[in-house]
């Protein structure tokens, strides 16, 4: 409104016409300055609300990132525990069977593993060793009889 008054007055429109249209005017420049200050206030309020929205978006992003990191950490921990268990249990069974065979108990069963990795290979070698030892003991028994 202030710009309109200033432009109308500058274009030769009489103050009486301006007063009828806009009311009593002390100085059109004051009205323009007031209008400009109001616009600056609106811009400032808009900028402040925009910053709050950005701050809220950043906080939401941080919360989602923290939640995802927590889920990934839990999955990694669970996977680590599972892998440790799946490796240590067969090794423990093989160790116990080797102790039994070492003490002369050939009736112990060597645990079979379905895996083709090192643990599966170790299990197969233990079974072969058990068979070889049983065969040697049978030969010794038959020779001494």
UniProtKB/TrEMBL annotation:
Name of the featured protein: histidine kinase
SMART domains the record matches: HAMP (SM00304)
Protein species of origin: Nitrososphaera gargensis (strain Ga9.2)
GO MF terms held by the record: ATP binding; protein histidine kinase activity
One of the record's GO cellular component terms: plasma membrane
Record's keyword terms, sorted: ATP-binding, Cell membrane, Kinase, Membrane, Nucleotide-binding, Phosphoprotein, Transferase, Two-component regulatory system
GO biological process annotation, one example: phosphorelay signal transduction system
Enzyme class: transferase
